[in-house]
Structure formats: C-alpha cells, structure tokens
Amino acid sequence: MTADAKPDAMPETMTETTPDRPMGVLARVLRRKLAVFALILIGIIVGAAVFAPLVAPFDPAEQFFEGLTLEGAPLPPNETFWLGTDLLGRDLLSRLIYGAQTSLIIGIVANGIAVAVGALVGILAGFFRGWVETVLMRFTDLMMAFPALLLAITLAALFRPSLWIVAMVIAMVNWVQMARVVYTETRSLSEREFILAERAMGAGLPRILFRHILPHLLSTILVFGTLGISTTVLLEATLSYLGIGVQPPTPSWGNIIYENQTYFTSAPWLVFFPGIAIIALALGFNLIGDALREVLDPTQKGRH
C-alpha cells in the first residue's frame, strides 16, 4: 500500500447505526390503518378525560332521585341518562368520563415509573457487569418469580388504597419486564466494536451511555412503554374490581364494575359499558405498540 493510499472502509460491524427520526417514525405509523384507528380511539378517550368538566353531562357524584325506578333499581339508557344510571342513581356516562381520568393518570404515571426504573436497572446491569450485574439481575429474577397480580394484591393490601398508592404498586410490579429486555440489549450493545473503540479512545462514561447506548435503546423503550400502558390499565381495573384499587367515591372503570356487579343480570349496562371502555383503551395502546414495533424493529421492515 502506498503512503497516500486510503484505508479500507470501516467494516459494517464497526459502524454505528443511526436511530430513526421521530417524524419519519410517525409518518410510517400513520400509513397503517389500525394505527390510525387506535390513535383516534385514544384521542377520543384522552379528550373526554381532559375536558371532563365540559363534556360530562352531570356531576359524577350527584345522586338523582329520578335516577332510580320506583323499586330503587338503576334506570336503563334513556334520553336523560344516555348510558343509564348506577345503583345510587348517578349518571353512568359522567362516571365513565371521569373514570377515564383515573385510568389514564395511573396508566401514564405507573407505566412511566416502571419504564424509568426498568430501563435504569437494565442499563446499569448490562453495561457495568460484575457484581452490579449479579445483584441487579438476581433481584429482578426474584421479583419476576412472583405472579404479578398476586404481588400487586399483596402490596395493595399492605397500604391504604388511593390513586397514587395504586400507581406506585403497579409500577413496583411492572418494571421487571422492561429491566430484562433493556439488560439484554445493553449487554449486546456494549460488546459492539464501535463501543469498544470509544472505550479504547478514552471516551467518558456519560458520552458512551448517553450518545451511543441510550439512543439505540429508545425504540425498545418506546415500544414496551406504549404496550405497558395497556397492561397497567388492565391491572388497575383488576385491582379496583377486587376492591383494593382506587376507592369510591373516586370513579374508576374497575370500581364502577365492582360497585354494580350485583346488578349484572338485571342491569347489564352497568358492567358492559365500563368493560367496553377498558377494552377500548387497552386495545388502542396495544395497536399503537404493535405499529411502533413493526416500524422500529429492523427484522420487521419490508414486511408491510
């Protein structure tokens, strides 16, 4: 080789792939009809929750004398109460709209905490190895050994149930899956040649983590974070249905079903409409999560 000859191009294994740009990801997501449907569905629920005082026809706690039959039974859907009334004569539609606030707050807060904790544990264990990896991942395995619902019931029973306590309980249960996934990807990334080259050139820890490791994990964190919201909503509804979640009079889709389950045969709308709301919100976030996974996962590209 002559002195002025250029060296060969860096092998593919030495190069660093560039994460997808947000606008490009959004554009590809919007090409999927199911994803658009999910965004509309989520948008309707979020809009109703945010503007609940404006769109709810009644106060969710107001008990109407005319909201019960002469026998004291709930009213079916009618011109005044579009989705009927509950066992106390309260408007079911108003309670569902305000209940959306509870489900979304818990879904976002609990899932956000779970994603942050899980990602932090996974990155630390995957990057530092040694005793840090052993301690963190054995603790993660210990948490995963307990059934999530049973652990959530136990934790909820130990504390006085409230909106924020339920959010913390769900976060304490749901972070382990994120930690395991992020740990696996971080460990793989830390062995790539471009990371080893950065270390050899004396790059500092913050530069490696925030400029090279974290950007490659964002797609995984985003996908699992989106899918985790639906899991969180379902878990909150389950806890509330069991009576250890958000407590009345604060409306929650789960405790609406719990309060009115004795009227399941005579007033099925009291269980049907909250159940539909829970399914719709969970389905919306699941469809968005699936669309993001198809767009961001290199193994899925070209299949759609």
TrEMBL record:
Belongs to the binding-protein-dependent transport system permease family. It is found in: Cell membrane. The keyword Chaperone does not apply. Its main location: membrane. This is ABC transporter permease. Gene3D superfamilies: MetI-like (1.10.3720.10). Signal peptide: none annotated. It comes from the Bacteria. It is a multi-pass membrane protein. The lineage of its organism: Bacteria, Pseudomonadati, Pseudomonadota, Alphaproteobacteria, Hyphomicrobiales. The chain crosses the membrane at residues 34-56, 104-127, 139-158, 164-183, 217-244, 269-288. PANTHER family: OLIGOPEPTIDE TRANSPORT SYSTEM PERMEASE PROTEIN APPC, PEPTIDE ABC TRANSPORTER PERMEASE PROTEIN. The keyword Membrane applies. Keywords: Cell membrane, Membrane, Transmembrane, Transmembrane helix, Transport. Residues 100-289 form the ABC transmembrane type-1 domain.
